[in-house]
Every structure is written in C-alpha cells, then in structure tokens.
Write a structure and sequence with these properties.
By secondary structure, this protein is α/β, with parallel strands linked by helices. It contains 13 helices and 13 strands. It has helices at 15-29, 60-75, 99-109, 112-120, 122-135, 148-158, 180-189, 211-220, 238-246, 283-290, 322-330, 335-349, 354-368, and strands at 2-6, 33-38, 47-50, 79-82, 91-94, 142-145, 165-167, 197-202, 227-232, 253-257, 271-274, 295-298, 313-316. The longest helix is centred in the N-terminal third of the chain and has 16 residues, at 60-75.
C-alpha cells in the first residue's frame, strides 16, 4: 500500500517526529511505500516530495496546504495521513489539538492589550480557516485525537460526529529509572544540593505551558525549605526572571534552554510540574512518570487522563490559580510520599509505550484500505 504522510517540517525536538519515526519504520517493515510531503525532511527509506513555501508567516500554512493538496493529487497515495491542517487527508492526527479552543483559553488569561494583539494577528485567522476547512473536508474519514479533551473540543467547535473521532493516547520510548550516582552528578552541575527539592518543568512555549503560574507558586512555597526550579525548553525568559525576582526566588530558578534528549535530565528532578493553560497531551508528563517522578499538571492537559490523582501525582483544576498549584506541589515535598507517588507513576507510564500508540494507528490506517 502506498501511504502519504503530510508533515510541514522536521524538528528534532518534536514529539510528533518521535511518533512518525517509529510509525514509518513499522510501515516499511510491513512492506508499505511511504510518500512524505514536507518543506524539509530528514530520514531514509521514504520518498520525499518537497513543498516549497514562501511569503509572510501568516500565509505560509495556507500555501503549504494548497501545494501539498496538489502534490498529493499528483502522487495519488492509497491512504493519506496528515499531521497538519490540510484538506487532502483520509486521516488527520490532531496532535496539536484544536486551535479555536487554544485561542479561547489564551484570551482568558491575557491582558486587554494582549487580547487585542491576538485578535489582530492574521496567523490565527489563517489557522482557523484551515481548521474549519479540514473538519468539513469530504475526504476526511477519521480524526485521531490524543486525548478525550481534544475529542470533545473538536465536537463542540466543529460538530464532527463522535464516531468519526478516535482517541489514541501518546506513547513514549522506555525511560530509565532514577540512578542516584547520575542524579547527583547532574544536579551538582546545576548547583542543586543533595537535599534540594527540585521542581522540573520541561516544555517550549512558556506562556501556554503556564510557567508564570509555577514561578508564582514557587514564591508561595519559598519558606518550605530548599525548593528549586529547573526549566528546560525554548522560550524568552526575561518576563519569568523578572517575576521570580519580584517574588524573591530568582536565585532558585535555572533556565537550561532546549535540550535534545532531555529525558536524561529527569534524573535531576524531584517533582515534575506543568501547569499548562492548554495542552492536548504532554509527552513530557508521561516521560517524567516513566522516570519515577510524581507529576503535577492541569486538568486541561490530556496527559492528566492517564494519571491517578493523588496517587501518581496531582491534577490542578485551574492552572492560573497559583495557590492551588502550590498546595498540590506541597503534597510531594515530603520525601516518603514523593517516592511512593514516583513508583506508582512509573508503573502507570509503562502502560503507554510508543509501540502501543503506533500499532493502534497502524490498525486504523490499514483498515481504511478495506473500506
């Protein structure tokens, strides 16, 4: 079977690429031909169709969608799987969630000036147009959501029939458990003491992932011992450092920047915290659980659906409520409770290997050929 895969560009830090790498490997093993439609791609065993995109940033997603559709029509794959907002796919993997829902949540936490800037940004108009076009496409047979919350967002905003959407949770590669020698070596490299309790935040896009609320929670907990925060990911840090300084915790915060293969740095943490204001499904939460860390995250994060609240970590109802976030973090400052929750988290995470995700997706793709 000739299978088309649409992905705008390759990034070594992307969770979607981890999935695609495994997915493509398994497809090739089963004897399928792979046609990739992308602006840039690195990989072997596939035929790559380069989609040229130019113009201002707000128009590029539209140009990509139109040109990818033309190329797909020329190549004529048997089944087309898209990870982008296009209208030439049989299956759409909604790994980025629902843009309309993200804008609603973003505006709810933004200042008046910021809300105006969001409204005037033409990129959002482009993405909303493409999203509406995608979900009304006559060719679309199935949507794969990576959480039930994303599924419900799509139904609510676009009226897609429930039976057209299936949920396949993300999966991860095996993550080693905590190794005390390596742990202390990594921690000392960041200036953390043996008795420091390190809150670990992993994610790019600090605004969406709620870093400001975590820093405020740290401010509320500054009298609860040697509590530190390690931030891994890409983003402008000035605003967050100013807030940390205002709260008197700037000396406790370390920004490590984006790190390829960041899973080894889970060794440095004690509690993983990700208070996202919108998150389809955070792989980082699942990776942290697999590494043996209790996870504190928000209810709007799809990864909360595979957690056991109070057992493998804690789920925050309102990520913007820093006091609630601080109370949830405080549950795991106690070492014994933290270790117990970390063990339970590791057991739960083992239920979601990347192979499970890939196999469920493969079953869906190969099943379409028989329709």
């Amino acid at each position: 079977m000739k299978i088309g895969l649409i992905r705008s560009r390759y990034t070594p830090y992307g969770g979607a690429e981890v999935f695609l790498e495994k997915f493509i490997k398994e497809l090739l093993k089963r004897g399928h031909e792979i046609e990739v439609f992308s602006t840039s791609w690195s990989g072997v065993g596939v035929t790559v169709h380069r989609i040229a995109v130019a113009g201002p940033s707000f128009i590029r997603p539209l140009v990509f969608a139109l040109r990818a559709a033309r190329e797909v029509e020329r190549v004529k794959p048997d089944v087309v799987v898209s990870l982008e907002r296009t209208s030439c796919q049989d299956i759409y993997r909604a790994g980025d969630g629902c843009h309309r829902e993200w804008l609603i949540r973003r505006r709810s936490t933004a200042s008046k000036a910021r809300r105006l800037a969001i409204r005037l940004n033409p990129l959002h108009a482009t993405l909303l147009y493409l999203e509406k076009r995608l979900f009304s496409s006559a060719r679309l047979k199935k949507v794969v959501a990576n959480s039930n919350s994303v599924k419900q967002d799509i139904i609510r905003h676009y009226g897609l029939p429930e039976e057209k959407i299936c949920v396949i949770y993300n999966g991860i590669d095996a993550i080693p458990g905590l190794d005390e020698t390596q742990r202390q070596r990594i921690r000392s490299g960041f200036g953390f003491g043996r008795d420091s309790v390190v809150l670990l935040f992993v994610g790019s896009g600090f605004e969406r992932k709620g870093l400001i609320y975590l820093i405020r929670a740290l401010g509320e907990l500054k009298d609860r011992g040697d509590l530190r925060l390690l931030v891994i990911g890409k983003g402008k840090k000035d605003r967050y450092l100013r807030e940390a300084e205002r709260l008197g915790v700037d000396k406790r915060v370390v920004f490590a920047g984006p790190v390829k293969g960041a899973s080894v740095l889970y060794q440095a943490g004690d509690i993983f915290v990700l208070p996202s204001i919108y998150e389809p499904f955070s792989n980082a939460c699942l990776e942290a659980m697999a590494a043996g860390l209790p996870v504190v995250t928000s209810k709007v994060n799809g990864a909360s659906e595979v957690m056991k609240d109070g057992v493998t970590g804690a789920v925050v109802e309102d990520p913007t409520d820093s006091s609630e976030l601080a109370r949830k973090i405080e549950l795991f400052i106690d070492r014994d409770r933290r270790i117990e929750a970390g063990r339970a988290a590791r057991v739960e995470a083992r239920k979601y290997p990347i192979e499970r995700c890939v196999n469920e997706f493969l079953k869906l793709v190969e099943g379409l050929r028989r329709i």
